[in-house]
Amino acid sequence: MKSKIFLLVIILFGSLIPFITFVTSSTNNQTILLEPENIKEGDFGIDWTLKEIFSNRAISFRDYFGKVVILDFFATWCGPCIESFGILKDLNDYYSSSQVVIISIDTEYTEKTEAEIEQFAQENDIDWNVVIDSVSLADDYSVLNIPTFFIFDQKQKLVKSYTGVTDFSTMKKIIDETLDDSTQRSVSEFWAKNWYWFVILPIIAVIVTVIFVQRRRVIQQHKEERQKKIDDLKQRERKRKLQR
């Protein structure tokens, strides 16, 4: 019985190894390029830490590794920015927060207070992250016009940037392609790294099954032998009684 439990534990542990390998390989791929110049598609985004105005907590770009991130550079005086908020709200409502995160970055660091930005955000029905650009991200990203949008994939590489009002379908198409590409890439990487387990595990399962069946046969054989001995004893006992 103990040997059977031990073998089952081995099988269970073996079946978890590919999953563990996949998770650890996924979470160890965080690489942030801290000071890119003239960021291009395929470049890593800048890591930063800023205070989110609604929650008053510090958030960092690296916090959202594993999700598609949309950075929206805006200003309160910008009409097209306000028009874009409706599109961003539709995107925010359409996608799960576990897949896509929107962060609006106000570029008026020296002109507006946090209270003013928070009131503006509430008036425009913004229900996603809003920060004030106190670290000059707009300069780092060479933002010359607003609104400007940067879309990053789950590994925090730039996928696409847009300047000016960008419609829902255009951004949705890029986000969907990014999500699909990431899923396909993750699956292919998983198979490439762990294919051998799907050869080894069936072999282990066959071996364990053979051992289990053989053990059951041995146990059954012992039971039959014991029963035969008991029957023989009973038969001899009956003969002795008859002889008396």
Strand-helix topology:
Elements: H1 2-27, E1 49-51, E2 58-60, E3 68-74, H2 79-94, E4 100-106, H3 114-123, E5 129-132, H4 137-140, E6 148-152, E7 158-163, H5 168-194, H6 197-243
Parallel strand pairs: 3-4, 4-5
Antiparallel strand pairs: 1-2, 3-6, 6-7
What's this model, at a glance?
The chain is α/β, with parallel strands linked by helices and 244 residues long.
Any overview of this molecule?
With 244 residues, the chain is an alpha/beta fold. It has two domains: 2-11 and 196-243, no CATH class; 31-194, Glutaredoxin (3-Layer(aba) Sandwich), CATH 3.40.30.10. It contains six helices and seven strands; from the N terminus they run αβββαβαβαββαα. The chain has helices at residues 2-27, 79-94, 114-123, 137-140, 168-194, 197-243, and strands at residues 49-51, 58-60, 68-74, 100-106, 129-132, 148-152, 158-163. The chain has a five-stranded mixed sheet with strand order 5-4-3-6-7. A two-stranded antiparallel sheet has the order 1-2. Helix 1 (2-27) packs across helix 5 (168-194) and helix 1 packs antiparallel against helix 6 (197-243). The longest helix has 47 residues, at 197-243.
Short key terms for the protein model shown above:
7 strands; 53% helix; alpha/beta; 2 domains; rod-shaped; 5-stranded mixed beta sheet; two-stranded antiparallel ribbon; 14% strand; Glutaredoxin; 244 residues
How far apart, in Å, are the first and last alpha carbons?
Answer: 45 Å
User: What spatial form do the alpha-carbon principal axes imply?
Assistant: rod-shaped
State the strand order across the main sheet: 5-4-3-6-7
CATH fold naming of the largest domain: Glutaredoxin
CATH architecture of the largest domain: 3-Layer(aba) Sandwich
Report the CATH superfamily of the largest domain.
Glutaredoxin
Number of helices: 6
Structural class: alpha/beta
Largest beta-sheet details = 5 strands, mixed
Q: Helix coverage percent of residues? A: 40-55%
CATH class of the largest domain: Alpha Beta
Number of strands: 7
Poorly predicted ranges: 19-36, 183-190
Based on CA atoms alone, the radius of gyration comes out at 32 Å
* Beta-strand content bin: 5-15%
User: What sequence of helices (H) and strands (E) makes up the elements?
Assistant: HEEEHEHEHEEHH
Overall pLDDT metric: 80
Q: How many discrete domains?
A: 2
